[in-house]
Amino acid sequence: NLDEWELVSFEIKDSMGYRKDRKVDWDVSNGHASGSVRDSGKMLVITMYHTSAIFKRKVKEIEAKNSIQELIEYAKTFAPVYPKIYYAKKDNPVMLELSLPDLHFGRLSWGEESGEDYDIKIAYDAANRVIDELLYRAKSFDVEKILFPIGQDWYNVNSKDNTTVNGTVQQEDTRGKKTYKKGRELAQSLIDMCATIAPVDVLVISGNHDEEKLFYMGDALECIYDKCPNVSIDNRAVSRKYYLYGKVLLGFTHGCDIKKERIPMLMPLEAKEMWAKSEIREWHMGHIHSKLDTRIESDEGSGILLRRLRSIVPADAWTFNHGFVGAVRAAESFIWHPENGLIGQFTAIP
Question: Which residues pair with 117 in a beta bridge?
């Protein structure tokens, strides 16, 4: 287990092995053996390989992980107790999926430089506004469950140096601790808003800007909602997550590390049981900040629809200077029927 052990050194050696060039041909009949042995008198030389490795246990890392897990369990004991909400029975139940990828909370954009202003207050207000509108538009449906994937670059940077996971410097609000806290408060307020309508399943989906910071936020949400019967948080570290609703199978990933040509084979391989129960299959991805719907046909996953989802974030100076402009800023929602699949889709403009 490489999470617990690290490789210190390894060595590969070879040596020569020798044996006679001898062939044996035996037959057994009624318990009696007969045959012949042919010996050429020559020696055969065979190369033998020997591998050795030294591993060292990651004592400090294991202790740190155990301490973090203890802190998480301890924090859960202080989780607020949410009263259980009893929802009205639905005659024609459907699931509402809310889409808010690539929020880039913390990004700073100056309108004179990039076309539009953007900061944590603008982002906070815009996110609340579009989710509120999407929930309002779903009122005419019997929503029995809300699926809310959170992440895919929820934050704009990963470190106090204002860089992404890969070290790319961003135009960012310099108050990193405040940005993290306000971003977590925003996620909590949106989840609470959704929970007034129906039970909420939250999938935390990592991105390429904020992978570590988002994982910490997911841990915080797990602790906050530990005693909430109406909200579940999936903060597993895996970068691709699947969700089955009736005959509808949805896959979620950011899309920064994966080519669409590889998409068809992943869903049936990674979600075998869900795949077997489903008939309608889609991937929902972010990263590009613009809309793209394309159906992928292949032997492994015929008919999978890939959706690249829009973002409400405006361009910053870098994206503007490189010509990445023109995409419509929007959040989207999908109404899923357990048997018939997609029966409604809405768009909210910030």
Answer: none
